[in-house]
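Ticket #4471: structure output looks truncated?

Reporter: J.K.
Steps to reproduce: submitted the chain below (201 residues) through the standard prediction queue, then opened the result file.
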Amino acid sequence: MPQLLLVDDHPLFCVGFAHALAHAWPGARVDTASTLEAGLAAAAAQPGLDIVLLDQRLGAHTGLQGLALFARQFPLVARVLISGDEDPALQAAAREAGASGFLGKSQPVHAMAAALASIAAGGLVFGPPPLAAPQGLPAGPTARQMEVLQLVAQGQPNKRIAQALGIAERTVKLHVTALLDALQARNRTHLLVVARERGLL
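Returned output as attached by the reporter:
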């Protein structure tokens, strides 16, 4: 059973994304930590850890700094950087820092799970995800949309969601529309019902 650790300083998203990832990758165990320090402590207490996923935005630290720290303390654990910024330069920096992969938040969660399964098997994943959605089926929410979904579930309006995630309010509206389409929901209330049924909340 693969053991993963997700380090992200947005606790609600961290837990929600971990839950969705475990749902997309049956059998995987996904633990969470909200700070780099907590992540290092959790890794020390988990000798069977296979992969650590580090968000690029970690409060006072960056995910790239986290990659270096984990490389020194846990060189046998595969390290993956996650970011909403999918700039090739950041991907290159992650690779240079010894990461086994880079996952952009625009990728569907099931595709990220497939990428992580490849990394767990010893592969490297940079660039496009290795698995597309089946023909004719919705791709499902992306990691960024999962962040939006968690804030919608808190009852936050688009303006507050935009501020929390550091994106434009128009972008939030696009993500909400995409969530409605992906989960085939009629409105925000129905969206939350379907998300809970799917195990996303």
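Triage note (M.O.): checked the attachment and the full token line is present. Residues 126 and 176 are 27 Å apart (CA to CA).
Status: closed, working as intended.
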